[in-house]
Every structure is written in structure tokens, then in C-alpha cells.
Design brief:
heterodimer, A: 252 residues, alpha/beta, Rossmann fold, six-stranded mixed β-sheet, four-stranded antiparallel β-sheet, 10 helices, 10 strands, 37% helix, B: 389 residues, mainly alpha, MetI-like fold
């Protein structure tokens, strides 16, 4: 089993508020890792450290290392823009650009120089939509606005958009919390499909979801990583009392 | 009792409903008052201004010869000299110069009547000698006095002869001035807004800039005139009274409005769009230019149009930089002396001749027409560029 992301002693402060306390974590390649925990426990903050989205916020101070492919992404010679290209992100609310379905997917790859406008771009759009399981539903209306799709379709469009820039890792921040059960099921099936090619890290409030899709689960509480193990171990045989309390619904 | 068998009876409700009704009544009355002011103003302007669309013309015999070149007055019969426009008499030598074939001919021509005659024909207050009045009555019977469409109003610049005065030079001056204003204030304003909203860090310095910009939007416009005078004319030595200086001064005034509204438009773009862009590894400029700006564009347009409409109606700062000058010929470049429509209206409103009243009203109507068409174009553009969201 290969480690894809090696987090070493990661600390994060929002101003004076110490939000992440020395996180150490190995995220494995081609696995789905779920981050669970009560609201405000730092799991989303941690997720956003992996693709340096926290750099966009003022007053954030990060210490520690996140080593991806033997390179610390917080090294001075690493540009955060190129980190985000390699490490894609899907958000809680589906957020397609207010452009056509085609442009939603094609925009970033063209800007990154992955494809040029024309046939190769058409192929990439088709490939991405097929990977996201959306192609059959939208192939006849690629020029319609992305916002005209239903919520679940929009979220799969966002996934297709992320895949199109050919990342190694996909981060998902509660990707199904705004969706109905049927759309959620489709996204979960898609995640299981995608892990063959990508490493996936998902933040979720839904413990059944973590149990259903994740290979590994990390439990966060108050900015600490309480426990990290195979999902089955976490859910069936947790070592920490706090984990057990949370999973059995005694707090959180 | 009614309330005994009605479980929904609530004694306080009557009072609460009455209060709602009272509020509605006051709201509607305010609306009615506001609308009636507007209706009164527009109908008054129409009533006063529409007669200016017509001008009295008189058919007279003009003799073109050497004598009328030396003394143009002699070209027209003595009894008619006082009832035709001085402007027409002045032009007789030039007509011959432009068309030598006219020499030594006499022709019956329709020419402009004097402004007092015009007022008499339109039934307004007039100052005419009895002799001249009788002459006009006589001509009228012969069908030699007519009200014709006043194209002069739209093809001439200002004139001290009322029947010969027009809005054209002021209109062109306004357009040139506004062009300078928009070219300067739009890019600078939008760029500033983008920088402050998307790039700048939120610290004491940017907060200070923000407070100052908001304050600038509320500064009396005449102070911008003084600023324009001090900087553009006295310091940079740009030509006084010119559309360039006027436009730059108005740009100073419009800038804060554009910045404030553009920032509001940018702020209203949901942050999820930016997150989506950054999450794909796009650079700041790609996110802002291709995803944020298109969504904010309609709002930015609206702010710009509001700013420009205000600039268009502005007089005070332009008086300070000398744009109230008497401009008979339309300016052809932004460095020539020019005046603008509101300044022209201001000048006409102060003229003693009765005929300028209708010119003033017509000037206001023209200004309003231009403003309304500007706004219409803005609404159209807004609708056209609005992204379905």
C-alpha cells in the first residue's frame, strides 16, 4: 500500500485560534479516506490544507508539512496554483460556473494547456462526462447552462470538471449533503469507480456514508486527530472512547 | 355575541389591521404625490417647450445686388425690415458670395421672422410696434406668415438672436465631455473596484481608502470643479472651457460612484464561484476575469450609467472650469471651447428675451430625452449581457 499524502505535524491558526493541533496522517493511494467528526472539529480546515485553499483566507498561519509525491507542498518553491491543479476539489454546494456545460469542463484544461480548442477538447469533455456518469444525460445539451441541471447532476458536473484537469487526488467537502438520497447514491457509486484512478479524501457528516464508501476513516475532534484506522476498525472496534461515543451517537 | 361562537375571534386584530391599512394609505399617498410632481413638471415643460419646435417664417422679397452686399438691410423692403430676423439679413452677403448667380436678381423667399413676431404669432406676450403688428396681420391674411418646423434649434449653436439659437453645440459639447468622462472614469473605477474587492488585503490602509471613497461620493460637486480648475487648468495647463477639462472634472466626480457600485456588484457574486475556480488551479486573474466579472458586469453597468447620468446633468463644476461660455459653433475636438446642455439651459434661463423661455424648456426636454435614451441603452445592454443564473 502506497502512501500518497504524508501529513507531518500540521498546525493551523486562524489568527490566534489554534484550529489544528499537530496532525499526523498518511493517506493511501487509490483509497477513499473519510474525515468525520462534529461541526467545527477542523476536518474541513484540514481538507483545505491539502490543496492550499486556506492560503486564500487572511490571517491563516500554517506550520508543518504535507508531503505529496516526496515534495512538501508548503515549501517556498511550490506554487499553490499548481498544487490545486494536481489536487482537485469538489464542494458542498454544487457550484458550476454560470456558463454552458461544455465550457464548465473545457475552461480549466484549456487554461492549463492540457488540450487546445477543437477536437481534442471535445474528446476530453466527453471523456470527463463519461467518467462522471453524466454523459448520457447531457450529451444532447452541452451548450445549455450548467445551472440548468438538477442538483445531483450539477454535482456530477463539478466532479467531471475536476477530473478534466487530470488531478491525482480529489478532495470532496461534504459532496452529498445538499443532495437527495438517489443523487447521493449515484455520487457514492461514482466515488467507488473513481478510486481506481484517483486518491479520494472526503469530509462527511453522514457516518453511514463513511461506512459505505471509505477504506480509511479519520475521526477529528476539537482540532485533534483522535483516531485514524481502517473504516471497519473505526466503526466496529474503535480504540478511543471519544470515537466510540461519537459513532454510537452519544455526542456530536 | 359574535365572539362567543367564533373560536377565531381576536379583539386586538381590528386594531392591528387598521394600522396596516393606515400604513398602506400613507405609502400610496407618498407615491401619488411623487408621481404628481413628476407629471406636473413634465407637462409644464412640454407645454412651454413644444412651441419651440415651431418657428415663424415670413415670405419676403429679397433683392440681391451690390447695394445689399454693402448694406444688407436694404435688400428687404423698408416695412418688412423690422419683422424679419436680423440673422437672416446678416446672411444675405454671404449667400451671394456662395452663389454668384444670385447677383442682381430678386426672389420671394421664406425667411425667419423676428422673435417678437414669433411670440405674437404663437399668442404669447410680445413687444411690437402697432405698425409692425398691422403689417404681420396683413401678411397673415396673404398667407405669407407660417409656423414651420424649427430645424434651426437642432442644427445651430447658441446665438444672441433668440430665433437663431439652437442646442446643437451644447449637445455635441455634452457628448464630447461625457466621452472623456467615460473613457477616464470607467476603466479606472472598475480597476480600482476589482483591486479593492478581489486583490487587496483587508487591513487598516484599505479600510481607510474605502472610507475615503465613500466620502468622496458625497462631496458637493462644485468642489470637484475647483479641484479640476486647480489641477487640470492651473497645474497641467489644459485648455480652459474645453470638453477635455470638463470631462476630466466630471470623471473625478463619477469615479467614487462607479467604484462603490462596482464593488457592490463584485461582492454580490457568490464566493462559491471563486472557490470553484481556485479549486481547479486557476490563477486569480483567470477567476476574476472569466468567472466573476461576467456575473458582476450588469451591476457594474448600472452603476456606471447612474454615474454618467449624474455627470450629464451636472452644471456647477463645469461653470468653474469655464464651460458656460458662449459657443455659437459646435466644437470639433475635445480641446476646443465647448459648453454642455445643462449649462446652455442655465444660460438661456437667464436671458431677458421672452423667446428664450421656450428654448429653455425645449433644452430641458432634449436633455431628458438624451438621458432617457442613455438609460434605455443601458437597460438593453444589461439584459443582453445578463448571464442566466
Amino acid at each position: 500500500m502506497k502512501t500518497k499524502i504524508d501529513v507531518q505535524n500540521l498546525n493551523l491558526w486562524y489568527g490566534k485560534n489554534h484550529a489544528l493541533h499537530g496532525i499526523n496522517l498518511d493517506i493511501y493511494k487509490n483509497k477513499i479516506t473519510a474525515l468525520i467528526g462534529p461541526s467545527g472539529c477542523g476536518k474541513s480546515t484540514f481538507l483545505r490544507c491539502i490543496n492550499r485553499m486556506n492560503d486564500l483566507i487572511n490571517n491563516v498561519n500554517i506550520k508543518g508539512q504535507i508531503i505529496i509525491d516526496e515534495k512538501n507542498i508548503y515549501d517556498k518553491d511550490v506554487d499553490e496554483v499548481s498544487v490545486r491543479k494536481r489536487i482537485g476539489m469538489v464542494f458542498q454546494q454544487p457550484n458550476p460556473f454560470p456558463k454552458s456545460i461544455y465550457e464548465n469542463i473545457a475552461y480549466a484544461p484549456i487554461k492549463h494547456g492540457i488540450v487546445k480548442k477543437g477536437k481534442s477538447c471535445d474528446e476530453l469533455v466527453e471523456k470527463s462526462l463519461i467518467s462522471a456518469g453524466l454523459w448520457d444525460e447531457v450529451k444532447d445539451k452541452l451548450q445549455e447552462p450548467g445551472t440548468s441541471l438538477s442538483g445531483g447532476q450539477q454535482q456530477r458536473l463539478c466532479i467531471a470538471r475536476t477530473i478534466a484537469v487530470e488531478p491525482d487526488v480529489i478532495l470532496m467537502d461534504e459532496p452529498t449533503s445538499a443532495l437527495d438520497p438517489i443523487s447521493t447514491e449515484k455520487i457514492e457509486a461514482l466515488m467507488l469507480e473513481l478510486k481506481k484512478k484517483y486518491t479520494i479524501v472526503i469530509v462527511t457528516h453522514n457516518m453511514q456514508q463513511a461506512a459505505r464508501v471509505a477504506d480509511y476513516t479519520a475521526f477529528f475532534h476539537m482540532g485533534d486527530l483522535i483516531e485514524y484506522d481502517e473504516t471497519e476498525t473505526i466503526f466496529v472496534n474503535p480504540k478511543q472512547k471519544k470515537t466510540e461515543d461519537y459513532i454510537t451517537g452519544r455526542f456530536g | 355575541m359574535k365572539n362567543k361562537n367564533n373560536p377565531f375571534y381576536d379583539p386586538s386584530l381590528k386594531k392591528r389591521h387598521a394600522s396596516a391599512k393606515r400604513f398602506k394609505f400613507f405609502a400610496i399617498s407618498s407615491l401619488v404625490i411623487a408621481i404628481s410632481f413628476l407629471v406636473f413638471f413634465i407637462s409644464d415643460m412640454l407645454q412651454k417647450g413644444l412651441p419651440a419646435l415651431q418657428q415663424s417664417y415670413i415670405q419676403v422679397e429679397i433683392s440681391y445686388n451690390q447695394k445689399s452686399i454693402d448694406s444688407p438691410r436694404s435688400a428687404i423692403d423698408r416695412s418688412l425690415r423690422r419683422v424679419v430676423s436680423r440673422a437672416e439679413i446678416r446672411q444675405i452677403p454671404r449667400k451671394i458670395e456662395n452663389n454668384p448667380q444670385l447677383m442682381n436678381t430678386t426672389k420671394f423667399e421664406w425667411i425667419l421672422a423676428d422673435d417678437q413676431v414669433d411670440q405674437y404669432v404663437k399668442g404669447n406676450y410680445y413687444k411690437l410696434k402697432n405698425k409692425d403688428k398691422k403689417k404681420i396681420d396683413e401678411l397673415k391674411k396673404q398667407g405669407r406668415v407660417e409656423l414651420k418646423f424649427n430645424s434651426i434649434f437642432f442644427t445651430n449653436g447658441d446665438s444672441k438672436i433668440p430665433e437663431f439659437a439652437g442646442i446643437k453645440s451644447a449637445l455635441i459639447g455634452s457628448i464630447l465631455t461625457l466621452l472623456v468622462t467615460i473613457m477616464v472614469s470607467f476603466p479606472i473605477g472598475v480597476m480600482t473596484a476589482i483591486y479593492l474587492e478581489e486583490f487587496a488585503q483587508d487591513n487598516k490602509f484599505t479600510q481607510m481608502i474605502e472610507v475615503n471613497i465613500n466620502n468622496l461620493a458625497a462631496i458637493p460637486s462644485i468642489l470637484f470643479g475647483l479641484l479640476g480648475l486647480a489641477i487640470f487648468i492651473n497645474l497641467f495647463g489644459l485648455p480652459r472651457s474645453s470638453a477635455l477639462v470638463g470631462g476630466l472634472t466630471l470623471a473625478l466626480m463619477t469615479l467614487p460612484i462607479i467604484i462603490v457600485t462596482a464593488r457592490a456588484a463584485l461582492r454580490s457574486v457568490p464566493d462559491s464561484i471563486r472557490q470553484a475556480g481556485y479549486g481547479l488551479g486557476l490563477t486569480k486573474i483567470q477567476v476574476v476575469r472569466d468567472h466573476v466579472l461576467p456575473l458582476a458586469f450588469p451591476g457594474i453597468m448600472t452603476g456606471t450609467i447612474i454615474g454618467l447620468a449624474q455627470a450629464m446633468g451636472e452644471t456647477a463644476p463645469l461653470i468653474i472650469v469655464g464651460m458656460i461660455a458662449f459657443i455659437p459653433d459646435s466644437p470639433t475636438s475635445i480641446t476646443e471651447a465647448a459648453t454642455v446642455m445643462p449649462a446652455q439651459i442655465f444660460t438661456w434661463a437667464g436671458m431677458p428675451e421672452r423667446a428664450y423661455i421656450e428654448k429653455t424648456a425645449m433644452g430641458i426636454l432634449t436633455l431628458l430625452t438624451v438621458l432617457i435614451s442613455l438609460n434605455t441603452i443601458a437597460v438593453y445592454l444589461r439584459k443582453k449581457f445578463e448571464t442566466k443564473w
